Amino acid sequence: MHHLAEGIRRFQEEVFPAKANLFAGLGAVHRPSTLFVGCSDARVVPELITQQEPGELFVIRTAGNLVPAYAPGADGVTASIEYAVAVLGVSDIVVCGHSACGAMTAIAEGHDLTGMPAIADWLRHADSAPGRTAPGDRDAVGALVRDNVAAQLANLATHPSVARALAKGTVRMHGWIFDIPTGTVDELDAGDLRPQVA
């Protein structure tokens, strides 16, 4: 915990003073333009990758950047999506997968998750990702990461607030793949999964 306390001290003494006006404005206004759905993996930091200031991204991070398809009832991911789209009025939604994803690796390699029932149940939200790979395919994880991003975009479109915004043309959806070792970001065409450089 000492390193976290030291980080807070540096933030308060070195970073905050240079951005005091920004934070003063953010104290009264919250208008991010983008909902960023990313993986909870500590190596994938949306604000760092996109070089956005505080207040510019509304971020949801889940294991495997999974978005459950809409279902009635209380759900933190669903509530966050609804808030970002219906209340904050974001104009763009990004689902960002990444290389070496532990969740996608567990699925692609068929890991035994019987001792981790919550994880096994959560990963079922990736069931609609076709994972078109042959047994022993060296890039099975990479292929599944790409398919999963497209599947999660489809899941997002089942949420009423997103469906309404898409119908009105007030929101655009994007699928990205972040490659950790190279820092590159590929944008997927959700229709045919052809990568395009972002």
From TrEMBL:
Family matches, as Pfam families: Pro_CA
Q: Which PROSITE patterns match?
A: PROK_CO2_ANHYDRASE_2 (PS00705)
What binding details are noted for the cofactor? Binds 1 zinc ion per subunit.
Class in the EC hierarchy, top level: lyase
Q: Which UniProt keywords apply?
A: Lyase, Metal-binding, Zinc
Spell out the PANTHER family in the cross-references.
CARBONIC ANHYDRASE, CARBONIC ANHYDRASE 1
Gene3D superfamilies assigned:
Carbonic anhydrase
**GO molecular function terms listed in the Swiss-Prot or TrEMBL record:** carbonate dehydratase activity; zinc ion binding
Name one process (GO BP) from the record: carbon utilization
Positions of Zn(2+) binding? 39, 41, 98, 101
This chain's function reads: Reversible hydration of carbon dioxide. Catalyzes the reversible hydration of carbon dioxide to form bicarbonate.
Q: Which family does it belong to?
A: Belongs to the beta-class carbonic anhydrase family.
Per its UniProt record, the required cofactor names are:
Zn(2+)
Q: What is the lineage of its organism?
A: Bacteria, Bacillati, Actinomycetota, Actinomycetes, Pseudonocardiales
What is the protein name for this chain?
Answer: Carbonic anhydrase
Catalyzed reaction equations: hydrogencarbonate + H(+) = CO2 + H2O
- EC numbers listed for it are 4.2.1.1
